[in-house]
Specification:
The chain is of the alpha/beta class. Helix 3 links the parallel strand 3 and strand 4.
């Protein structure tokens, strides 16, 4: 199974970029993994939030293939514990060809992206910056990989 993370906009901050690179490399030891960055929209001051979501949604949809299993990182999604995420990921490894996680723009996702999604996942009830969400999600994905392999990174 190939796993892909789609990000809306570049990562801002050397510290976040370094952590994202580190965890991406770690995850790649367990499964084929890639990150696709969709450039942020230009001249958004003249756009409403809804217009911006629609335009971002069109760019996101271009990255998806019909057979993809799409999971949105969304505040309204299921909020699993790390061990539950690992079990979920292990099941997906046997049933998916390409598992695609998406972190959207500042206003969330357009209706068309929500309709295309197979599932929604939330990292917390707390609100994090998009830069932090990227890092936290990748750490949790790495943690799930180590739980699946029975490695000592995660402690109960």
């Amino acid at each position: 199974m190939k796993t892909e993370l789609i990000l809306m906009g570049r990562t801002v901050g050397r510290e976040f970029a370094a952590l994202i690179d580190d965890y991406s490399g770690r995850i790649a030891h367990y499964m084929p993994f890639g990150i696709t960055v969709i450039p942020e929209l230009k001249n958004t001051k003249s756009l409403t939030e809804e217009q911006q979501k629609i335009m971002e949604g069109e760019l996101i949809m271009k990255q998806l293939q019909p057979q993809d299993t799409v999971v949105l990182l969304d505040e309204h999604g299921h909020e699993p514990r790390s061990v539950e995420l690992a079990r979920w990921l292990q099941k997906k490894q046997t049933t998916c060809r390409r598992l695609v996680f998406i972190i959207g723009g500042p206003y969330g996702f357009s209706p068309v992206v929500y309709q295309r999604a197979n599932e929604q996942l939330s990292l917390s009830r707390l609100t994090f910056s998009h830069q932090m969400v990227r890092t936290i999600f990748l750490e949790q994905l790495y943690r799930a990989c180590t739980i699946i392999k029975g490695e000592p990174y995660h402690h109960e």
